[in-house]
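Quick one before lunch.
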Amino acid sequence: MKKRILIIGACGQIGTELTIYLRNKFGKHKVIASDIREGEKELMKSGPFEILDAMDYNAVEEIVIRHEITDVYLMAAMLSATAEKFPMKGWLLNMTSLFHVLNLARDKKIDKIFWPSSIAVFGPTTPKIDTPQRTVMEPSTVYGISKQTGERWCEYYYNRYGVDVRSIRYPGLISYKTLPGGGTTDYAVDIYHKALKHKKYICFLNAETTLPMMFMDDAIRATVSIMEADKENIKIRSSYNLSGMSFDPEEITESIQKHIPEFKISYEPDFRQAIADSWPQSIDDSEARKDWSWETKIALDEMTEIMLSNLKDKY
Ligand code: SER
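Model of the serine complex:
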């Protein structure tokens, strides 16, 4: 088996942990990490790294050919809050990088693609509880529009050219290794850091904002298992709903207070409140469970324990 993997956007929140996981699984020289800038020490010393601008087709192609890449994980993207500040930049980065990778697969230069979608594909008119796989999708953010459009193109490239592209609609992801950047769900990571450091946190969403979330270990397991599943089992070529847990800022606060009783939260909602209000509160992921045996493992209190015990030496 001559699988060789390229991760584009390897220094981001997902990319860092995905790279290390795949290197442990397949061997460090089989997994090339790339990003527009260098990342965390642990990632940089774990195997080969290339500086790569995901917008530059020739540069992506050159690395794919030189390293004889078979599988690409395209993790570079501008997230929801930043893309509201730079709409055209967000749209161009998110779409151009996807087309580069889809076209490499269409032209048979790579075999398989992982491309992340998001709960942001849903919008204010979508049913909010147990949001089904197939439902009304009228996203109101630039990020959501780019992810929904991306899903349509993935399905099109599969139907028209047979491109083996696989995708998951990630909920908000929580991890301790690398910080997220520019997302609406980022508060659920920041809150753990501030709880340890200052024993208080000012939240940019209000107390009752319930959102779908997931601990990073579950997200990485989902990502690798959809990529390793038999081709015939991947029945959805746009993107699969994926569910971990749902909570609001008050509930994550209560979970932290079980360990840090003096911890206090206050609320100063900003423009991200409207983004969060447009997204679902919980997700029905029965298609992923059925097609590639997905099962979530980590719930809120267990995640809180893992987060606090891994971050405590930092502060
Ligand atoms: N976590 C992302 C964001 O908040 C959603 O995919 O933008």
